[in-house]
Amino acid sequence: MPQEQHDQNVLDINNLHTGFLIDGELHHAVVDVNLSVKPKEVVCVVGESGCGKSVMSLSIMNLLPKINSKISKGEIIFNGEDLTQKTDEEMNKVRGKDISMIFQEPMTALNPVFTVGSQLQEVLFNHTDMSKQEARERGIDLLKQVGIPRPEKIIDEYPHQLSGGMRQRIMIAISIALNPKLLIADEPTTALDVTVQAQILELMKAIQEKEDMAIMLITHDLGVVAEMADKVIVMYAGKIVETANVVDLFTEPKHPYTKSMISSIPRMDEQKNKLNTIDGIVPSLKNMPHVGCRFADRCPKAFDDCTKITPQLAKVSDDHEARCLLYDACYPDTSSIEKEEVNQ
Amino acid sequence: MAKYLLKRIGFIIVSLFFIVTITFLLMQAAPGGPFTSERQLPPEIEQQLNEQYGLDDPLHVQYVDYLTDISTWDFGPSFKYPAQSVNDIINRSFPYSLVLGAEAIFIALSIGVLLGVFAALKHNKFGDYTAMVIAVLGISVPNFIMAAVLQYVFAMQMDALPVARFDSFAHTILPAVALATTPLAFIARLMRSSMLEVLGSDYIKTAKSKGLSDRVVTYKHALRNAIMPVVSYLGPLVVAILTGSFVIEKIFAIPGLGNEFVQSITNRDYTVIMGTTVFFSVLLLISILIVDLIYGLIDPRIKVASKGGSK
């Protein structure tokens, strides 16, 4: 990638490794993640539970519990600065202002003992010198933007007086309060019912277009991906297995994991008694295979090499990367990569 | 709000009625009387005394008399100390208990909460273990032993504080600390576990993602939620400290109400027993009411009254 373009990216993650200490040993939940987010781009990170997508997003925010987790390698470049090198105080200036985050559970994400307004204004007071009056006006304005009815009244209410959808709207209002460059949304619609899901996604899309921010949307719902994404990153067991733009991903998925995932979506035009599923589960951190493809034992197309050779992420067609030995490009160039993998 | 308060006060009055009735009947059921002593009184004098205090009236008359008196906050004369009324005894001794109790509650609350928060923040580290060892010690060592140890160390050995009595602020320190130890330890443990739970919750993650400093996250967002179990423990705590202080009052020779309470039972001083019982009950019921009101103030989810319109 040319340097110039590199500089323009909102976020560049290079060779990120994040691990957890289990019984004194570091086990990586995120391995060798490379990705970039361009301005105004919606990047979806997809994968099933336990694939490392949330850990990756918390790594960006530097919010993982320090006591048992650690970014062991790699860099997260945001605004030309490596976030992994920042202290907590320095990160506090970035969090909520330049990068903000929405979480999965709107029911518990707001503090029950403070009013909506005080939680909304808090982020304004924290990063700006706004007066109380200005912050209140901005708060009401934000609530209006996220489609809250009667914002003058709601701003003085407590979270328990509001529905899940409303609370998620408020979380969005908090996260866009200072026009961040990047919004990380960790499964923002998973806990909501379907009609509310669609509203929230629409809202996020509308705000993203209006405010020119980039969104990193973490989800396991391919429906959400189809609706929102420009670029899709498929993760499996801590590694990126496929990267493509959204149209390519759905029309020509390359990795068997992506293919199986897409085929497990029920379709309206098919009569089926049983849905397609992917057998087995993601191996746990402690039982992760050191050599070979991490998806091998669940893969319908696995062959001998899959358990012996660790595939690398490589370009398989224009703007489309995959990590699968079905494509020659994914064979490691030298045996050194393999050795490195063993040593981990 | 006013309606809620009236309702609660109504409940308090009903509860008091039952407490008074039960105490009255229990006192009557107990054998012996205030003038039963080894040195037999001449029957005429005992007769006269009974007449004077209305003890020869039928039970229901005595009961109604007592109820009417109590409703005007008149607990009657003491049988043992004829010159004093029960009200005199309470008015004289309660201030001591109140000062002692208030100091003890203050110590238990402030240090207990701090210790608990500290332990939670240092979870599974040295600080946590130290705080919890202190807490376990505090819970398992009874307060009369604590009192003796404190007297020995601070009064006898170091000569820093007075050993007993209750004349100046310095006198209040040792008994208050002794009285506070157990509740302090209990609050510390309560606070630690609830703080740990709160620190792991989603809204703490949200608060951190807003870029708030650790201090604001801990003391603004976490503490207010984590203190709830401690607040609900306050009601029983107030009572435990006020009534449980008699051992400490005895050890430190403090003429407090707890002391009078125990004395009245050995003296079979009916009116004092009943008076102090009713007085303590009123305290308990009022402190529970106050705790409920505080609860509603801290946590908006707990509706104290049907306030706030239609929502």
From TrEMBL, chain A:
<dbReference type="GO" id="GO:0016887">
    <property type="term" value="F:ATP hydrolysis activity"/>
</dbReference>
<dbReference type="InterPro" id="IPR003593">
    <property type="entry name" value="AAA+_ATPase"/>
</dbReference>
<keyword id="KW-0813">Transport</keyword>
<dbReference type="Pfam" id="PF00005">
    <property type="entry name" value="ABC_tran"/>
</dbReference>
<dbReference type="GO" id="GO:0005886">
    <property type="term" value="C:plasma membrane"/>
</dbReference>
<dbReference type="InterPro" id="IPR050388">
    <property type="entry name" value="ABC_Ni/Peptide_Import"/>
</dbReference>
<dbReference type="GO" id="GO:0005524">
    <property type="term" value="F:ATP binding"/>
</dbReference>
<dbReference type="InterPro" id="IPR003439">
    <property type="entry name" value="ABC_transporter-like_ATP-bd"/>
</dbReference>
<feature type="domain" description="ABC transporter">
    <location>
        <begin position="11"/>
        <end position="262"/>
    </location>
</feature>
<keyword id="KW-1003">Cell membrane</keyword>
<protein>
    <submittedName>
        <fullName>Peptide/nickel transport system ATP-binding protein</fullName>
    </submittedName>
</protein>
<keyword id="KW-0547">Nucleotide-binding</keyword>
<dbReference type="InterPro" id="IPR027417">
    <property type="entry name" value="P-loop_NTPase"/>
</dbReference>
<dbReference type="Pfam" id="PF08352">
    <property type="entry name" value="oligo_HPY"/>
</dbReference>
<comment type="similarity">
    <text>Belongs to the ABC transporter superfamily.</text>
</comment>
<dbReference type="InterPro" id="IPR013563">
    <property type="entry name" value="Oligopep_ABC_C"/>
</dbReference>
<dbReference type="GO" id="GO:0015833">
    <property type="term" value="P:peptide transport"/>
</dbReference>
<keyword id="KW-0472">Membrane</keyword>
<dbReference type="InterPro" id="IPR017871">
    <property type="entry name" value="ABC_transporter-like_CS"/>
</dbReference>
<keyword id="KW-0067">ATP-binding</keyword>
Automatic annotation (TrEMBL), chain B:
<dbReference type="InterPro" id="IPR035906">
    <property type="entry name" value="MetI-like_sf"/>
</dbReference>
<dbReference type="GO" id="GO:0005886">
    <property type="term" value="C:plasma membrane"/>
</dbReference>
<keyword id="KW-0472">Membrane</keyword>
<feature type="transmembrane region" description="Helical">
    <location>
        <begin position="230"/>
        <end position="252"/>
    </location>
</feature>
<dbReference type="InterPro" id="IPR045621">
    <property type="entry name" value="BPD_transp_1_N"/>
</dbReference>
<keyword id="KW-1003">Cell membrane</keyword>
<dbReference type="GO" id="GO:0055085">
    <property type="term" value="P:transmembrane transport"/>
</dbReference>
<feature type="transmembrane region" description="Helical">
    <location>
        <begin position="133"/>
        <end position="154"/>
    </location>
</feature>
<dbReference type="InterPro" id="IPR000515">
    <property type="entry name" value="MetI-like"/>
</dbReference>
<keyword id="KW-0813">Transport</keyword>
<feature type="transmembrane region" description="Helical">
    <location>
        <begin position="169"/>
        <end position="188"/>
    </location>
</feature>
<dbReference type="Pfam" id="PF00528">
    <property type="entry name" value="BPD_transp_1"/>
</dbReference>
<keyword id="KW-0812">Transmembrane</keyword>
<feature type="transmembrane region" description="Helical">
    <location>
        <begin position="96"/>
        <end position="121"/>
    </location>
</feature>
<feature type="domain" description="ABC transmembrane type-1">
    <location>
        <begin position="94"/>
        <end position="295"/>
    </location>
</feature>
<keyword id="KW-1133">Transmembrane helix</keyword>
<feature type="transmembrane region" description="Helical">
    <location>
        <begin position="272"/>
        <end position="298"/>
    </location>
</feature>
<dbReference type="Pfam" id="PF19300">
    <property type="entry name" value="BPD_transp_1_N"/>
</dbReference>
<comment type="similarity">
    <text>Belongs to the binding-protein-dependent transport system permease family.</text>
</comment>
<feature type="transmembrane region" description="Helical">
    <location>
        <begin position="9"/>
        <end position="30"/>
    </location>
</feature>
<protein>
    <submittedName>
        <fullName>Oligopeptide transport system permease protein</fullName>
    </submittedName>
</protein>
